């Protein structure tokens, strides 16, 4: 009998991996499932992006191994994107590393900087992968509270009371997933100062900046941020390229070099055609974001109506790809609440508990469902 590694004893299968099997089974049984759970954009990339990939297929080097650092013109495109949209200047040769999706960057960064027993500050609620990757590399998750009363931002007095002597990395993500809290440059300034004071690596996970957000921000806009910070970003949500797996890590040059040491031992470069498509996507101007947000705004209005139909209170200040809502008084389990809706109304909604204990009492809707389907969901009640 071959036993699994002990590291698997302290992690579980990713929630959506297991839950979507159940959802697919219900669909195969003829249930008219409306999936409002997962943030996988159903909209298409621009035609220019698709055309760039098709054209790239005919190039002589298209099917060879590619550079671990990506094409120079891809890094240049990422640098231009940050300059044009965030007014952040980055050296494309030393301060940018393309990734196969930003999710892999969480693992690469953790492998590059964490030793067994190191501590990691993780937001509660927050993206579950921060915890699972921390456990996989043998480090110790230390959760810090985000609460609605504080607009889903850290309480710095509470942070200072934690034992920070072993903390190596602090994960943040604004606009925040799952709540949609915007954050602010003032918050980023406090976080950079906190990271410098305690000599830790601050990492901002930033894939939602351009979805229903009139003020996109980057942690790297803060003066001195590059001394202690990295930022992850992705083309998945911004350009409807989730399945393409194109992301990036940007910031401190020495840290980027450390991440490259890990990455170069884990893959053999991103497919040439995808890189060419990504280069084209990064050239998109504000009309692209505006056209996407016209669609998402209509969906959000309807989704808020659905949430209110369920007796929930919507977090109206939220931006990004999700609607975050507080359950009615008296509901003691978000998971029981969403399962009841799944089995009786064939609608899948995400329980807030998968993002941490502070997610209890909340649910999350993804804006990745066409308007007519959201209306259908409303009509089922």
TrEMBL record:
Its EC number is 2.6.1.-. It is an enzyme of class 2 (transferase). It holds the Pfam family Aminotran_1_2. Residues 32-381 form the Aminotransferase class I/classII large domain. Keywords: Aminotransferase, Transferase. InterPro entries: Aminotransferase_I/II_large, LL-DAP_aminotransferase, NHTrfase_class1_PyrdxlP-BS, PyrdxlP-dep_Trfase, PyrdxlP-dep_Trfase_major, PyrdxlP-dep_Trfase_small. The keyword Transferase applies. Signal peptide: none annotated. It comes from the Bacteria. Its cofactor is pyridoxal 5'-phosphate. Belongs to the class-I pyridoxal-phosphate-dependent aminotransferase family. This is Aminotransferase. It comes from Flavobacterium fructosi.
């Amino acid at each position: 009998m071959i036993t699994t590694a002990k590291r698997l004893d302290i992690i579980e299968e990713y929630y959506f991996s297991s839950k979507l099997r159940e959802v697919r089974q219900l669909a195969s049984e003829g249930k008219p499932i409306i999936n409002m759970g997962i943030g996988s954009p159903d909209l298409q990339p621009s035609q220019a992006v698709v055309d760039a990939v098709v054209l790239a297929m005919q190039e002589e080097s298209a099917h060879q191994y590619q550079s671990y650092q990506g094409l120079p013109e891809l890094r240049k495109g990422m640098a231009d994107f940050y300059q044009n949209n965030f007014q952040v200047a980055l050296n494309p040769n030393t301060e940018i590393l393309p990734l196969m999706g930003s999710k892999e960057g969480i693992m690469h960064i953790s492998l590059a900087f964490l030793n067994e027993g190191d501590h990691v500050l993780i937001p509660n609620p927050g993206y579950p992968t921060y915890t699972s990757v921390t456990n996989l590399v043998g480090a110790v998750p230390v959760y810090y509270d985000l609460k609605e009363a504080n607009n889903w931002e850290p309480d710095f007095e509470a942070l200072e009371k934690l034992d920070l002597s072993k903390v190596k990395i602090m994960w943040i993500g604004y606009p925040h997933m799952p709540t949609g809290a915007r954050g602010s440059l003032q918050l980023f300034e406090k976080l950079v100062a906190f990271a410098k004071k305690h000599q830790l690596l601050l990492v901002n996970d930033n894939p939602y900046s351009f979805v229903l957000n009139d003020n996109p921000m980057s942690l790297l806009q803060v003066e001195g941020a590059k001394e202690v910070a990295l930022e992850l970003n992705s083309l998945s949500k911004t350009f409807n390229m989730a399945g393409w797996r194109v992301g990036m890590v940007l910031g401190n040059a020495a840290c980027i070099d450390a991440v490259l040491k890990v990455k170069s031992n884990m893959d053999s470069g991103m497919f040439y055609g995808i890189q060419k498509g990504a280069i084209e996507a990064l050239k998109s101007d504000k009309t692209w974001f505006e056209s996407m947000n016209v669609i998402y705004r209509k969906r959000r209005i309807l989704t808020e109506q659905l949430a209110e139909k369920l007796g929930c209170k919507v977090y109206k200040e939220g931006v990004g790809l999700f609607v975050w809502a507080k359950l009615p008084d008296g509901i003691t389990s978000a998971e029981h609440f969403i399962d009841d809706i799944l089995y009786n109304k064939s609608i899948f909604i995400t329980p807030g508990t998968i993002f941490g204990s502070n997610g209890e009492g909340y649910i999350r809707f993804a804006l990745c469902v066409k308007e007519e389907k959201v209306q259908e969901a409303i009509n089922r009640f």
